[in-house]
Write a structure and sequence with these properties.
single chain; alpha+beta; 6-stranded antiparallel beta sheet; 5-stranded antiparallel beta sheet; 23% helix; 23% strand; elongated
């Protein structure tokens, strides 16, 4: 038996801000959608879960397999979840099915107080026909025994002021009573008509049945534009998390992430184990969001993760423009310039995802020996192979392959800009076969 929940994968390389409303508009053509949850947004492929009202509607969406939503390719798969449950309510997670209306237990088990008992009985009593008028015939018997000339014991008049032997000038006739009842009935019917005029639902007045209020169904939310709003989630700032503050330094962070672009500013939040990095271009941020998290990049046993930031650029608090705040135990700052940039004119010729292989560049010829390179880099982890690339004009390089990616990350973080014979070694990740 299938599941009413499907997995949705959206090819979103430009990180366009897709919301639950967009997905609801696209997939509602296959059936009624109860819930939608977008749970992965920091990669070029966005992932979401959608729960239909039944399995048949979900299978109808699965039958399409691939579709297009305003230029974005969508793939649909069967989910192992039977029910989609989540607590968040925002633009990326939403319930669309109306909340169930709770029925009072008194309607099922019986009322426990007079008010509830009255409401329960009102659901059972037979309704009165709309044309039926109230019966006032019983009132005539009460009026026949009512003497309007008898003051009664509570009267304010004294016995001296009333002559009980005096006869009324005109005897009370039966016609007068009927006329009174007719007028009384006329007033009651008029009041009933007035009450009806104030009713929004024009329901028939019924003294034995409670009126049922008809709730107008909520208006369906329709996405106004058929084109996705071109609001990109990526800026020039990226957020990196899960550093070990006891062993990771600011220079290590710079050495690793400067391989992906020219860094303008950084703030290292030691107590929070994360860092904000601002690049000169969005290309670096987009490349990291696309490749970094899938590479299982690890440093000091901590698996690093990158996320898009909401900041357009980094501002230093309590600091004049052009100045750098003083480093504290909680925060550390960095500001780069053109002299510190790795890439000239944003020419990213070494823009490669993290791997277990690194390339050493800007080497002097006397340093291009396997023995010397092994002695300098074996302390970071097990080395599988070393390949020297000696070229003319002192453009000497060396490929170094480690057994694990963490060793390569550690070596790059520690040895980039290492000075040997007045020359700084430049280190990048490499995909060239070693």
């Amino acid at each position: 038996m299938g599941s009413p929940v499907i997995l949705i994968c959206v090819q979103n390389p430009d990180f366009i801000d897709i919301t639950a409303t967009h997905l609801h508009q696209h997939f509602s053509q296959y059936g009624e959608i109860d819930k939608i949850l977008i749970f992965e947004r920091n990669k070029p492929v966005w992932k979401a879960l959608a729960q239909f009202e039944n399995v048949a509607q979900a299978n109808k969406a699965l039958a399409q397999q691939a579709s297009n939503m305003n230029g974005l390719s969508i793939l649909v798969y069967q989910s192992q979840k039977k029910i989609l449950e989540f607590s968040a309510r925002n633009q990326y997670s939403r319930y669309y099915k109306d909340q169930p209306q709770f029925i009072s237990q008194s309607l099922i088990l019986g009322a426990k107080n007079p008010i509830e008992q009255k409401q329960v009985q009102s659901q059972v009593l037979a309704p009165v026909k709309p044309t039926q008028k109230p019966d006032f015939s019983s009132l005539s018997t009460h009026f026949t025994h009512f003497n309007i000339h008898d003051p009664g014991p509570d009267s304010e008049y004294s016995d001296d002021e009333i002559d009980f032997n005096e006869k009324p000038s005109q005897p009370i006739k039966e016609l007068d009573k009927e006329d009174f009842l007719h007028q009384f009935e006329k007033v009651i019917n008029k009041n009933i008509d007035c009450l009806k005029s104030f009713s929004d639902f024009q329901t028939t007045f019924n003294s034995q049945q409670l009126p049922q209020i008809q709730q107008t169904p909520p208006k369906e939310k329709v996405f106004q534009s058929e084109i996705l709003e071109q609001k990109k989630l990526i800026t020039r700032v990226i957020y990196v998390n899960w550093f070990d503050p006891k062993q990771t330094t600011m220079s290590m962070i710079y050495n690793i992430f400067s391989t992906f672009g020219n860094i303008v500013r950084m703030i290292y939040f030691r107590t929070k184990c994360n860092v904000l990095i601002e690049y000169t271009t969005e290309i670096s941020v987009k490349f990291l969001l696309t490749n970094f998290n899938d590479s299982n990049s690890t440093l000091f046993g901590q698996k690093l993760k990158v996320y898009p930031s909401n900041y357009e650029q980094i501002f230093f608090r309590n600091c004049e423009p052009g100045q750098i705040p003083k480093n504290t135990e909680e925060e550390e700052y960095y500001v780069g310039d053109e002299k510190s940039y790795r890439y000239q004119n944003n020419n990213f010729k070494y823009l490669v995802p993290p791997s277990n292989q690194i390339m050493l560049t800007n080497l002097k010829k006397e340093f291009c020996e396997e023995g010397m390179i092994f002695q300098a880099f074996y302390k970071f982890g097990k080395i599988e192979s070393i390949k020297l690339l000696c070229e003319e004009k002192n453009k000497n390089k060396c490929l170094l392959k480690y057994a694990e990616i963490e060793s390569a990350m550690f070596a790059l973080a520690s040895m980039h800009n290492y000075t040997y014979n007045n020359r700084k070694i430049q280190i990048f990740f490499s995909k060239t076969k070693c």
